[in-house]
Amino acid sequence: MALPCKLRFAQKILPGAFVRRCLSTSSPASGQMTVRDALNSALDEEIARDEKVLLMGEEVALYDGAYKVSKGLHAKYGDKRVIDTPITEMGFAGIATGAAMAGLRPVCEFMTFNFAMQAIDQVINSAGKTFYMSAGAVPVPIVFRGPNGAAMGVAAQHSQCFAAWYGHVPGLKVISPFSSEDCKGLLKAAIRDDNPVVFLENELLYGRPFEMSEEAMQDDFVLPIGKAKIEKEGSHVTLVAHSMGVLRSLEAAQILAEDGISCEVINLRTIRPMDEAAIFNSVKKTNHLVTVEGGWPQFGVGAEIIAKVMESDAFDYLDAPVVRVTGADVPMPYAASLEQASLPQVSNIVNSVKRILNVGAEQGQMKS
């Protein structure tokens, strides 16, 4: 099998496991769907539903996508709806933005959001501000999507989370889904939205299967943008996370439950607009808060959550300072051991929770 251009280059300089992981697929059990297939399903349904929807990006057509998210779409819809582009992010992001201004609904794929830095002017200045600057006359219904955050073994220039970057910008909606249901329902919502949407997927979750409800398997399944989901209810501490951080939080909650600690895990789903009410209501119930993210700590998503809580009446309900669990404040190292040390681990969440609850080995189990 021939590899796409950027993966051919990656194969020369990166471990073989990285390339194999990019192309890997899994066979989910009945009632389950992988994140990759959920995204593919959303794209398929929306291209079929609306003739104005098109997908464009590097390797999305003939190769079925670098991560196989667009598998089968070019064969089904042809060159006018699924378009391979040259390796020029600024160029094809600009074309897609112009197409959106002209009335189409393009989905612009970045092979990784690290490459979106080449097109950041198009995303922020052209797409993000035109509706405002035109006094509402020119909507820009475009979705910028692709893998975000740290992968494995790809070092500093390919291991960055852009949630805080784009979440900082008025005029953009920013989505960071976790599960297959999130990905399908929110991508469909993003494509239908009249605003520019930055849709931050996670490479390490593409092949992971999740349970899908019967409702989520239907063509008309759409989730609301700006609404968080309580993945697990709890009473002692609130864990707020997005993307891979949700998985780590759920794993930590399971470990903490063995010590009698009940964690409420909130999946943000949307970074901008953020579901403040879901966070505040949970804090008022648990009186403790830990935020979890893969990005850097300074000016991060967790910092924004803490500021919102401090400025609200939920602050009066806190019984301990809020703690952030984040990536290390360093460029991502290449060495595997250092890479793991730079990313938030389940143990970091567990230790942070026990610290704010003042629960350690010597204290025994948490009292209900």
Automatic annotation (TrEMBL):
Start and end residues of each Transketolase-like pyrimidine-binding domain: 33-208
Compartments (UniProt record): Mitochondrion
Catalytic class of the enzyme: oxidoreductase
Lineage of the organism: Eukaryota, Metazoa, Echinodermata, Eleutherozoa, Echinozoa
CDD domains: TPP_PYR_E1-PDHc-beta_like
The name this protein goes by in its record: Pyruvate dehydrogenase E1 component subunit beta
Record InterPro entries: PDHB_mito-type, THDP-binding, Transketo_C/PFOR_II, Transketolase-like_Pyr-bd, Transketolase_C
Role, per record: The pyruvate dehydrogenase complex catalyzes the overall conversion of pyruvate to acetyl-CoA and CO2.
Cited Pfam families: Transket_pyr, Transketolase_C
Reactions catalysed according to its record: N(6)-[(R)-lipoyl]-L-lysyl-[protein] + pyruvate + H(+) = N(6)-[(R)-S(8)-acetyldihydrolipoyl]-L-lysyl-[protein] + CO2
Main location: mitochondrion
Entry cofactors: thiamine diphosphate
GO MF term list: metal ion binding; pyruvate dehydrogenase (acetyl-transferring) activity
Signal peptide stretch: none
Keyword Mitochondrion: yes
Alphabetized UniProt keyword annotations: Metal-binding, Mitochondrion, Oxidoreductase, Potassium, Pyruvate, Thiamine pyrophosphate, Transit peptide
Enzyme Commission (EC) number: 1.2.4.1
GO cellular component: mitochondrion; pyruvate dehydrogenase complex
GO BP: pyruvate decarboxylation to acetyl-CoA
